[in-house]
Protein: B30.2/SPRY domain-containing protein
Organism: Cyprinodon variegatus
Amino acid sequence: PTPISFLLLLNSAKIPILLQAKVYFCELEVDMNSVNRKLRLSDNDSRFSVGQEEQPYPDHPHRFQQCWQLMCRNAVTGRCYWEVEWKGGVLISLSYKGIGRRGNREDCRFGRNDQSWALECSDVFGLSAWHVNRETNIPPLSNSQRIGVFLDFLAGTLSFYCTSSETLVHLHTFSTTFTEPVYPGFGLWTGASVSLSLLTNSGKQTP
């Protein structure tokens, strides 16, 4: 298909959501070897929440040991778009595979290092963007708890949007040069949940 206007995508406050979703939408699959033991998966591994008890996941060098985080199995390249619904306090991230896994230091936490970029969403504190432990506060443009993520790997842009059934509202864009494949990831706080959205044949989103 003819490339969609990415200047419009990055700079417009609102655009029709299906303009790019049908073309670039990708479904995410969880890397079970990365899931922290406090995270509980349900709905065919498309919903993540913080459990009261640790889950019996086996030891693995890719598993986040202390940070309540997980990563997806498949790298995203080219132009990709995905959506999630969130509740509570979450991190919606893109990360290199080499991010730290063993501790609770900044090198393991999404957005707090040079290995990852993250949008922090909180019912209490609002929205902010994080990279190399630097925070950019985002004005409360929308109260939507559905977030759209658009990656243009070659252009080096990662954009976040509040979404509805009709529009995208631009929140923040990271501009960088990606030097290796990147992987979607999620971090959660107590009481939080994240649900991956699917795109039906009609172009409508389902949680």
About this structure: The helical segments are 6-11, 18-24. Residues 1-18, 200-205 have pLDDT under 50 and may be disordered.
